[in-house]
Every structure is written in structure tokens, then in C-alpha cells.
Amino acid sequence: MIRAVQLAKRFGKIEALKNVTLEVNQGEVVGLIGPNGAGKTTTLRILAGLLRPDAGYAEVLGVRTTSPEFKKVKRWVAYLPEEVMPYDNLTGRAFIEFVHGLYGVDNVKEAAEISGLGPRIDDKIKTYSKGMRRRLVVASLLTVGAKALLLDEPTSGVDVIHAVEIRRLVREYAVSRKAAVVYSSHNMLEVESICDRVYFINNGVVVDSGVPRDLAAKYSAANLEEAFVRAISI
Amino acid sequence: MGAFTALVVKDLREILTSRYFLASLLGGFVILIALGAVMGASIETAQKATQSFAVVVGNTTELGQRYAELLRELGGVLYEKFSPDLLDSYGYAVVVPPNFTLPAKVEVYAKYRGLLSTAAPPFVELAAQRLAEEVGVPPRPINAELYVYLDGRVFKPGEVAMLANLFLISWMFMFLVPLLVASTAAVAVGLEKEKRTFELILSTPATARTLVAAKLTSAVALAFIQFAVMAAALIFYFYNLSRAAPPVSSGEVAGDAVALPPALIAPVALSTLALSLALLGLAFIAATRVEDIKTAQSVVPMVVFPLLVPSFAAIFGTVEGLEAYPFVHPLAVAYSAMVGQWDKVYAFLATDWALAIAVVASILKFVTPDYLITGRWRR
Fold it and tell me: ipTM of the predicted structure?
């Protein structure tokens, strides 16, 4: 469902991606793991059709992200950017309406429910905490009926209880909707807990990939975090 | 269409409920009213002190001779016959009629030298008041009829009032609307940059073109809301100015002056709209270069304002010779329409709309998701 082949991308002197190849199947949650500047966000932006790769290509739902046909596919793709902040002067409900309006769907009730904001959904977003804002954006995107989810640090700024809930929702979404999910995070323990497979990215290159348990075993590590450190130090 | 509507509705909801936006609107409203009061007083003082004028007086009544003498004491230079050439040397020429009596009707001639020359000077009234005091009749016993020479044509009093209104409205359109449109674009785009929402929007079915078209539309809509509020403030503003320099023509003529034919207003509005779109495009690009709303609000007016400064010429003179510069076209359009040069009006409008279409088309073509997110033009 989601495929990237030998992606390369340069911003001036910075070579953000050198060689990234990955694949995500239907109903699968795949983690992108790497430090800041590893190339995770650039990869997701290419998969979302926001950036054109300098070399290689990406396909989502069988269509290349640089082709004119991808405009139609975007209806089935939801991308959660890492730093996005909802508009202060809108209420939570108005923001959901805005996002759903962009997709041409009307599923506000479900989004309000899974956001966990309760009656605060009708308050202005400027009164929300960082975690509440993040939950609002995640809930808006999880209810547009996407078949490919691209999530960049979805639990960033969210407290432990709600982070667990978001992970549960994402996992459930992939299984129940048979969606392909790319889950990027710094938090490797988080990725380990929800991802079927993971890709280690460092300096714009995929250094290894596999099932979390297998990778830990391969590097004789107690967890994914240790495995990643050993993988990039080879 | 759904994404377009969602974008426009979101922008209106977001910005119209911003305290910053509402405060700036209220601030502008109050400042304009205050400026009207202050500038009215200042213009009154300046006019009293600096006007040079000719007084044309031939055979007239004794009262007329005394009126001419009072005008001379106020700085007028006496002549026996009126000639339009006098207007090359003097701001105004006041003609004292042969049958002068109180209440009197005097003709005042001026050459069009910008908006300030479309009102009769205060010394005409001042001399009449002094005369009235001398002979013991109630004040303001004079009706000054202003005739304005414009491009070889003489405009009669009712037409002059219309001319003044048209040029004033044209100047306001020319200056305020583009500035408001540009400022609103700065807010609308700066907000998206600050919130990093371009990525979110552009990853949905909304295309970069939809986003740009929606931004331009909502910026124009918001600017017109602002303009409507400002126009209400300007009514108070000019009310204060008119109190400081009262109209010298009769009430009947002043009443006629308010009615501006749509045929004159429409081309001015069309020219302004076209130039506003062109400037909106420029403002859009400027706003996408910065990272937050405050910077956008600072940067965009700095980019747009200097382009509008030449329009100030309209207050103190004509825009003749400046027609090659598009951002004075609304006034040039008004000028040409007023003297019946419709071929020029159409040429100005064609230029303005060609410019607007070129700017908007360029933005729609070159603004891509790559550019909005990374700030780099795609090769």
C-alpha cells in the first residue's frame, strides 16, 4: 500500500535523504525510528506528496506521489505533521469541521468522542494544553476514513495516559480499517509497543529494518533502543 | 469546492474572532476620527495663512468695493478683469460681481491642483463676515460658487463638488483598499506559517492552487469588511474636516454633490480591485517568506506601503505624468472619466487587469507545496 524506493532529497547543501527504501502493507503499523535530522519527516513529506524526491520514487495506494493521479489518492491519505498547531481562535469542533471539510467528510461526532476532550470540544483552542491540541489533530485525522496514515510524532506533548490511548486507537485503526500506517517517533519504546515492523533511519539512510523483537535479538539488545544504537554504530 | 469552502470559512472564523484583528480595526476607526479633527483644525490654520489669490473687481457697488478691499487686506491682489491666465500665478481668483450686495453670490475660479483645490478658500467667507459685521447684517451672507479648470474644461459648482467627491473617493480606494488587502493577506498567510498548517492542508485533497485561491478570496473578503468599517469612520473624519472648512457653495449645490454617477464610480472601483489583487499577490509572496504572523504583519506593509506613497500626489496636485505608474491609476481613471476621455479609462483598466491577472496567474503557477513548506522555488 505504501512504498518508497531509493528516495533521495537534498535541501541546498544538506542531503536530507540519501537512500530510503521502505514498504508498508495493508493493516500494518510500521515504525520509522531515528534521531533528529535522520530524515523521518522528509520521508513522510514525500509519502504525503508534499515534496518531490530528487531521486527514487514513492507510491501510496499504488499511485506515485509525483503523478497527477495522486491528487485523487490524497482523499485516502492522512498526514499528521510533527509541529502542526490547530488555530487558536477556532473551537475544537470548528477545527474538526475544517479538517473534515478538506476531505469532504462529516464525522465530527466520532472525532469529538475519540479526542477525549468532552465538553471542552466547544471551547476555543487557545485554552487547550499542548496535549489536548495534539489529541484534537490526531482525532480529526483518524476520522476522515484514510487508508494510509502517516503519523509524525503523534504523541508529542501528550501525557502518558492519553499517549497510551492514541497508540491503542492507531493500532485498532490499522486492523479494523485495513489501513497502512507509518508511525514516526523518537520514542523507540513507544514504537516497539505498537509497530509490526520498524525501519532504522540515520543520516538519510535506512540502516536496518524488521520486526522489533527480531531486531533486538539480531543486535543482542534488551530493547529496540539498544538495538538502534548498535545498528548505527556498526 | 468543498475544500475551498472549508478554507474560506475557517479563515473568516479564525481572523474575525481574533482580538488582535478586532483591536486593530477599532484602533484604526478611532485614529481616523481623531486625525480628522486634528487635521481639520490644522488645514483651517494653514489655509488662512498661506493662500495667495487674485481679486477681480471692475464696476461694482460700494459694498462690492468694500468687499474687494477686505479681500485685499486678507492678502488678495486686485485686478480689473478676469482671465484664466491668472490661475497660473494664483491659487484662486475671486470675481466680485457688478451688482454686489448682501447676501451676495461671488464666483471663485481655480485650476485643478489636487484635492485641496476643489473647495472654495475660507478667505471668501471671512471677508464676507467682516463686511456683514461692518454693515450690521447676520454673518455668512455669501454664496461662493467655485469653478474649476481641468484639462481645458471648466467645471461648474455642482460639477466641482462631484469632482471633489469622485477624486476623494478614488484616492481613498487607491490607498486604503490595497493596503487593507495586503495587511489581511499577511495575517492569513502568517498564521498558517506560524501554525505549520500548510503541511496539514496540502496533504489533504486541497491543492496548492485551491489554497492560494482561497487565501486570496478570504483576504479580499476580509479587506472589504475592514474597508466598510473604515468608510464609516471616514464619514466622521470628513465631517470634522468640513466643519473646519465649511462649504461655500449653496446647500442646493452641496446636495447635488453627494450623488456620484455609478458610471464614474464603477471604473474607479474596477481599477482599485485590479491593483489590490496585484498587490495581494505581492503581499502573499512576502508573507510566505516569513515564519510567523507578527513578522508577516510587519514585513508586508513595508513592502506594499512604498508602492502606494505616490498616491499622496493626488492631494496636492494632479497625477498627470504619473500614469505609467499603475498604482495611481484609480485617480487617473477618475480624471479621464470626468473629462470624458473614455478611451484612456479603458486603457488604464486593461493595463490594471492585465497586471492583476499576470500576478495571480504567476502565483497559481509557481506556488507549490514544496515552496510553501520549504520556502524554496522548485526548479
Answer: 0.94
